[in-house]
Design brief:
Strand order of the largest sheet: 8-3-5-4-12
Strand content: 15-25%
Number of helices: 11
Shape: globular
Oligomer: single chain
Length: 407
């Protein structure tokens, strides 16, 4: 099976990230006149080298949501592994359903048990430590909010432990059951309406008897929903954002986890599955083609939004919701969370001369060419641009999902 067009496009962009092909800035030392090139990045959202800019952008947007005097929780909704194959062939529809089911479970459970207006920022992750498919949602959720009538502030409390000091959001078992119900009901509707591709090994889902038996098996299992309280038991706005940025941004694997790429085998660090080991991580080798196959499984459909806001954080409600929160908490607008101490990784730092150790001056600045221009030149004029990938393009790795699912 040939390589999917969208995957090839993303890999091509990442391959050229921060190379001379994308042009950039030329710096010169005012003292010794030595020169350094700083090339433009590809800015593709899947690129591990551009992760710092995405993280800074997420921090800038999210800092407006986080307020002092409020505890914030990370809630993780995970889909069972039995659904992975079906999801990979229907990613847009079933990832959308994951978002919808996670939010509906949160909304209903918090309104019923907490009696306050909920809000959440949700981010989709599709990988595990070994780059396998592992669809789950990370949610940033405030542990309180305006009451349902908007008249007072309510902090989430444990129903049977009113003097509990540890911050509490919701019972994860009840939340998990609600999440499971919404997802299975939605999955059944999608199958019956013919909105899912049920080819190959999933064709049997069109048979009502087999489908309902399979859904009953899924319903009988516990779905993993994990509620993690604020770090150190108390939420400081800057701590919350720095802590959650590690989970809410980034791609399947960072460069610092890579160990080697030798003899066609890529080795990287992965969290150990063995409990009780002294080391949390172990070396994990994969053939180069398998490494690329696993990595490209996590390329999202073109234009797909992996970070979404719901409830009070939704774009149409955010202003009114946050104003109500500040009023009920007695927080002035100027006292809202500030993350000035969070470094802005999106801004390129001015390089220093390696010889004189003084800031260098930019003497030439070139904008990144359009991708159309770059790709046309690569095909017709300078095919050597992609020489490191020639073998890969000629011998593509089979995918675990239909190639036209990318569009």
């Amino acid at each position: 099976m040939r390589l999917a067009a969208q995957a090839k496009n993303v890999l091509s962009r990442i391959l050229l990230c921060r190379t001379a092909t994308l042009k950039g800035r030329l710096y010169e030392c005012p003292k010794c006149h030595s020169e350094i090139n700083v090339y433009n990045s590809c800015v593709d959202r899947h690129c591990p080298q551009c992760g710092g800019a995405r993280r800074a952008n997420w921090l800038e947007k999210t800092e407006q949501l986080v307020l002092p005097q409020v505890n914030y929780f990370q809630v993780i909704f995970t889909l069972p592994s039995q659904l992975s194959g079906l999801i990979l062939g229907n990613r847009q529809a079933l990832y959308d359903l994951l978002f919808q089911s996670a939010w509906r479970a949160l909304d209903e459970t918090l309104r019923a048990t907490g009696q306050f207006q909920p809000a959440a920022q949700l981010v989709l992750h599709t990988w595990n430590q070994r780059l396998g498919h592992h669809a789950h949602i990370h949610a940033l959720v405030p542990g309180g909010g305006p009451s349902l009538d908007g008249g007072r502030w309510i902090t989430s409390r444990h129903p049977t432990q009113p003097r509990r000091r540890k911050p509490y959001l919701v019972d994860n078992t009840e939340l998990g059951q609600n999440f499971r119900k919404h997802y299975i009901d939605g999955l059944r509707r999608l199958v019956l309406s013919g909105k899912l591709r049920l080819e190959g090994e999933w064709f049997w889902l069109q048979d009502s008897t087999q489908r309902e038996a399979w859904l009953d098996e899924l319903t009988a299992t516990d779905w993993n929903v994990f509620v993690e309280g604020p770090p150190h038991g108390k939420s400081r706005p800057t701590d919350v954002l720095k802590y959650l940025a590690r989970y809410m941004t980034g791609g399947p694997i960072s460069d610092r986890r890579l160990i080697s790429d030798e003899d066609g085998v890529v080795t990287f660090w992965a969290r150990s599955k063995e409990k009780g080991q002294d080391s949390r991580y172990e070396e994990f080798p994969l053939k180069g083609t398998e490494f690329v196959r696993r990595w490209t499984m996590h390329i999202l459909p073109k234009g797909y939004t992996r970070s979404r806001a719901y409830g009070g954080y939704h774009g149409t409600k955010r202003g009114v919701y946050l104003a109500s929160c500040r009023q009920l908490l007695g927080i002035a607008t100027d006292d809202a969370a500030s993350t000035n101490d969070c470094p802005d990784e999106a801004e390129a730092s001015q390089p220093k001369c390696p010889h004189c150790d003084i800031p260098m001056e930019c003497i030439l600045r070139q904008s990144r060419p359009s991708w159309k221009e770059i790709f046309e030149r690569a095909i017709y004029a300078d095919p050597a641009i992609y020489s490191p990938m020639h073998h890969f393009w000629q011998h593509p790795t089979p995918y675990a999902y239909p190639i036209d699912e990318y569009g």
